[in-house]
Structure formats: C-alpha cells, structure tokens
C-alpha cells in the first residue's frame, strides 16, 4: 500500500495572494488514480481534506491587515470569518472520519485522527515527498484549495452586508448539511432555456440516466417559454423533475423593493403550471437575500435552498471541463452536498456527463429531489 508522505517544502513557493476574481479549478488529471471504487474515492477524499485543512490552518496565522490584503478588501467581518472557520473545521473532521473507514483497504493519506487536535496536527505537518506517487497532484491541489478558501473567506468577510451561501440566517434556510455521506443533490439555476435548448437536453439526459434534479426557474423565463410553446409542453419538459423558483428575475433579492412579489408571483406560476413538479423552495440569485426575511418565508411555506458546491459555469468563468473538475474536487472535499449548475449554459451539457462518468464506480449516490430539504 502506498502511504502518502508529507507535503514537500516546495509548496511554499506557491503564491499565497490569489486575486478575488480568480476561480478555483483543479486538473483532475494530476491525480494518478481513477475513482473506480469507493475505497479509491476515499483516498482522494482524504487527500483533498488534508490539503484544504493545511491551507485553512495556515490562514489562521494572518492578522486582519494581512487578511484584508489577501482578500482584496478594505473592511472584513472578522467574527463571520472565525465562525466560518469553525464550521469548516467541524466539517473536515466529520469528512475525514468517514473517509478513513476504508484505510484497511488502502492506507494512502491515512493518519490517526480521532479528534480536532489530531486533524489540525496532521494538517500542519502535511507534506508530499518528491518521489511520492502523488507528487504531480500536490502543488496544483495546494493552489486550488488556497484559491477556493479565499473564495469562501471573502464571502464570509462581506457577510451579512452582502449575503451569500456561506452562512445561513435561520432554520428556514437549507444547504445540504443534513444529507448522508456520499449523497449529492443536483440542482440547476436560471432556466428555463428557450425551446429545444439546454433545459430540454438536460432533462432528457437525466431521464435516460434514471436521475432527477431540482430546477430553479425564473418566473419571467417560464412565462416566456409557455407563451412560445404551451403549458402542456412545458409540463412535459419537466416530467419527473422538481421545480422551485428563483424569483421573477435573476437579480439580488436583498435590496429589491419588490422582492416579496417576485417570489410569490413566480412560485404561484410554477405551482399552477406544474403542481406535481413544484417544490416550495426559493433559490436566491447570487445567494443574496434579506436577513429579516424568515417570517415571510415561513408564512409562504417556503424554504431558502442554498448550495455548497458551485460549478462556476457562468459566462466568463470556467470552461466546461474545468467546471466539471471543480465540482468533482469539491465532491471529494465535502463528501456530500448541493451541486449547482445553470441550465441556460452550454457548459452543463459537457460537465454533467463528464462528472457522472468520473464518479460512476465510486459508490456515491444522488439524492432524489422529491426527498430533499424535507
């Protein structure tokens, strides 16, 4: 069995000042093994967890001035950053505990971790030697996790002035924490696409795979789609899928005067058109919503559906293959969660099949959309 050695000092040469606009992606070709078994999924998962923990631990040594410089911000919410770090450490410990259950099958990246102190110690001394089987992965993974950590820390630094998916405002907001290990929920934002477009292709592909997903639609786009086809055709498109809402327009609902009307109007449209597909979920565009909105959502019987695995497939960000590789790396890191693609983008048509092919033998499962967020 290959025993992973300690992360080499050469990783220190990787830059520590990722620009806020950078989006993290990792070439999975740098990892020398295919995920052809649950045990091999666990090996890769342990590796990504330790590498992310290594970067998280290092970031805690930064004072406020250094953190502001690294994140490109003049003001930061230190309390929100510290709270996020605590949540991340807890998640990492939980994940590593699950991932080390297969250490008897393959001991790579297996260390004695029984509590948080053990995890922090192993993360701090992580190294990969030059002659390691995994050396080609080490530096790219280090760079990925440093950049990804900056994405998360920056959002926390701006919270709650700019709300996002990294923190919740209450129990009416869900992000997939309650899912079981190795279980993922597939979601799509911003649709529907025009007639015979990406939405149609994706739902047809999912049905062929005997899968479903939650599609968060815009009321205006759904109304246009009905006008250009018919209500019956739209209902047929989403057959077997779940449909929630993103509001009437794809815009921030945190400072919009008509945010309540946007939500109720679009939810009513979906429920009237597709009562069998409708799920009482609101996905806030950009993750932005009001801190004082819990009463409204509870009165409407709605939950806010957040996410923790972002494909970054919007225009101007990652290419389709890069998006698929980012999602796969985050699946290995978080081991469960809510994945978000955009069904108005061509990239999802490439990324999703690549993702399913890469994970087909890894022992993970896909959450039935009708059972999610209950």
Write the layout of secondary structure elements.
Layout: H1 38-59, H2 64-71, H3 78-99, H4 116-124, H5 135-158, E1 173-174, E2 183-191, H6 198-208, E3 214-217, H7 219-228, H8 231-237, E4 242-245, H9 259-273, E5 278-282, H10 294-300, E6 303-305, E7 309-310, H11 320-334, E8 337-342, H12 347-359, E9 365-366
Parallel strand pairs: 1-6, 2-3, 2-8, 2-9, 3-4, 4-5, 5-6, 7-8
Helix pairs in contact: 1-3, 1-4, 1-5, 1-11, 3-5, 7-8, 7-9, 11-12
Keywords: Hydrolase, Metal-binding, Signal
Organism: Pseudomonas asgharzadehiana
InterPro entries: NODB_dom (IPR002509), Polysacc_deacetylase_ArnD (IPR050248)
Summed up, what is this model?
This protein is of the alpha/beta class. Helices cover about 45% and strands about 10% of the residues.
- The CATH homologous superfamily of the largest domain: Glycoside hydrolase/deacetylase
> What's the CATH class label of the largest domain?
Alpha Beta
Shape: globular
Oligomer: single chain
**Domains, number:** 2
Strands, count: 9
Protein name: Polysaccharide deacetylase family protein
Keywords: Hydrolase, Metal-binding, Signal
Domain NodB homology: 182-369
Organism: Pseudomonas asgharzadehiana
């Amino acid at each position: 069995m290959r025993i992973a050695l300690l992360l080499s000092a050469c990783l220190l040469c990787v830059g520590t000042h990722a620009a806020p606009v950078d989006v993290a992606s990792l070439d999975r070709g740098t990892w020398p093994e295919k995920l052809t078994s649950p045990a091999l999924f666990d090996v890769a998962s342990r590796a990504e967890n330790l590498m992310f923990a290594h970067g998280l631990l290092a970031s805690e040594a930064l004072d406020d001035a250094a953190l502001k410089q690294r994140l490109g911000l003049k003001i930061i919410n230190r309390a929100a950053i510290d709270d996020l770090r605590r949540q991340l450490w807890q998640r990492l410990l939980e994940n590593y505990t699950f991932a080390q259950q297969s250490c008897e099958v393959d001991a790579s990246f297996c260390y004695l971790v029984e509590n948080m102190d053990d995890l922090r110690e192993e993360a701090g001394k992580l190294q990969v030697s030059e002659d390691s089987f995994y050396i080609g992965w080490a530096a790219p993974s280090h760079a990925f996790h440093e950049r990804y950590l900056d994405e998360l820390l920056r959002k926390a630094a701006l919270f709650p002035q700019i709300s996002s998916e990294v923190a919740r405002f209450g129990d009416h907001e869900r992000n997939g924490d309650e899912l079981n290990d190795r279980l993922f929920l597939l979601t799509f934002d911003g649709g529907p696409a025009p007639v015979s477009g990406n939405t149609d292709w994706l739902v047809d592909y999912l049905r062929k795979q005997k899968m479903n997903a939650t599609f968060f639609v815009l009321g205006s786009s759904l109304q246009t789609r009905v006008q250009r086809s018919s209500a019956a055709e739209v209902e047929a498109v989403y057959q077997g899928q779940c449909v929630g809402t993103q509001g009437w327009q794809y815009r921030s609902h945190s400072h919009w005067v008509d945010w309540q009307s946007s939500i109720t109007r679009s939810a009513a449209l979906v429920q009237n058109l597709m009562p069998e597909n409708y799920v009482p979920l609101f996905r806030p565009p950009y993750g932005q919503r009001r801190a004082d909105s819990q009463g409204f959502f509870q009165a409407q019987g709605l939950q806010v559906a957040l996410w923790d695995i972002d494909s970054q497939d919007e225009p101007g960000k990652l290419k389709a293959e890069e998006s698929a590789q980012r999602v796969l790396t985050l699946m290995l890191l978080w081991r469960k969660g809510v994945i978000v693609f955009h069904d108005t983008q061509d990239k999802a048509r490439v990324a999703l099949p690549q993702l399913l092919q890469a994970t087909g033998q890894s022992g993970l499962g896909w959450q039935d959309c009708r059972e999610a967020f209950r």
